[in-house]
Amino acid sequence: MTPSRPDHRGASQPAVPPGRPALRAQRKVAFPRRLFCQELAVLLDAGIPLYEALQTLCEKEAHAPVAQVLRGLTLALSQGQTLSQAMRAHPEAFSPLLIASIEASQRTGQTPEALRQHAAYLAWLTGLRDKLVSAAIYPAILIGASLLVIGFLTVFVVPRFAEIYEGMGGELPWLSGVLLRTGRAVGAHPWGALLGLVAVAAAVVGMVRHPAVRAALGRWLWQAPVIGERLRLIELASLYRTLGLLLQAGVAVVPAMEASGELMGPGFRRALGEATRRVREGMRLSDAMQQHGLITPVSLRMVRVGEQTGELGSMLERAATFYDEELARFTEWVGKVVSPVLMLVMGTLIGGIVVLMYLPIFQVAEQIQ
């Protein structure tokens, strides 16, 4: 588990020295959960006992904080604890989902399979994030480049035209006058304009990071006609995959739903809690999820088939895969539509500035004729 291998890690987590509470950890470590699951599963499949497998991973680990977490696991195992109990001492490095899967798999003797399934789950999360990021990269570059061009025109080009038009006299078109006055003011105080832009950018970033603003933005996105439906599908796909992972690892339905609730957003967490309560009272999972809006017509039929055949975990996994493909198609469509629209908008803005700069010249030429 060398730190140089990319895209095989969990979220950044603090290392917790053995015997010390997690909240006292002072140093952050990007614990490679996906790689840990893959390598430990391979060693266990090879017939190496769990304690020796963890020792092997610890000995080969070059990253000191990660090795410290692994030493904590081996120490806990030597004291008679199970792997899931040892992981609970490091909640910053191991997610509740992984701990629940390992705890259930220990009862069935399927720990390597649970590790492989969790590694596949982390790979899915990484792939989903990469798709969303790649879909946003080109629009972000296009917007950034266009803003730089507009800034260059406003700071360096427009003030020069304003100086030329001052000596020409005559009345300028209204929009051209506004643009030239703005350019003249920016050209006279470039550093003040730059500081103002930085202050506006900092204010926007601060607002976006504020919990209340982010919550309001999230509610607006969820209510948007097209985006809201796709966000709901992403959340449902994550729920189905998480539930399927836990059920296939041997976790009972109610504990699996309770563990999945920790990974859901606020809206779905509330609905999932109500559905969990109904399942605990004896209602079927498909009926409880349908009653609380946690299922679609396609996934409803899949879940009911899974309940009848006893393959509920695998059917939930297939439902998540079904919506993965739909979201992939939507992301591709957005990339094909948003980029041309942005190019049109930014081209119009830049072209408008250029036309407004030259419009007084055209007006003077018409007067001369």
From TrEMBL:
This is Type II secretion system protein. GO terms for cellular component: plasma membrane. It is a multi-pass membrane protein. GO terms for biological process: protein secretion by the type II secretion system. Residues 1-22 are annotated as: Disordered. Residues 1-10 have a biased composition (Basic and acidic residues). It comes from Aquabacterium olei. The chain crosses the membrane at residues 135-158, 188-208, 337-359. It is found in: Cell inner membrane. Keywords: Cell inner membrane, Cell membrane, Membrane, Plasmid, Transmembrane, Transmembrane helix. Belongs to the GSP F family. Gene3D superfamilies: Type II secretion system (T2SS), domain F. Pfam families: T2SSF (PF00482). Residues 36-159, 240-360 form the Type II secretion system protein GspF domain.
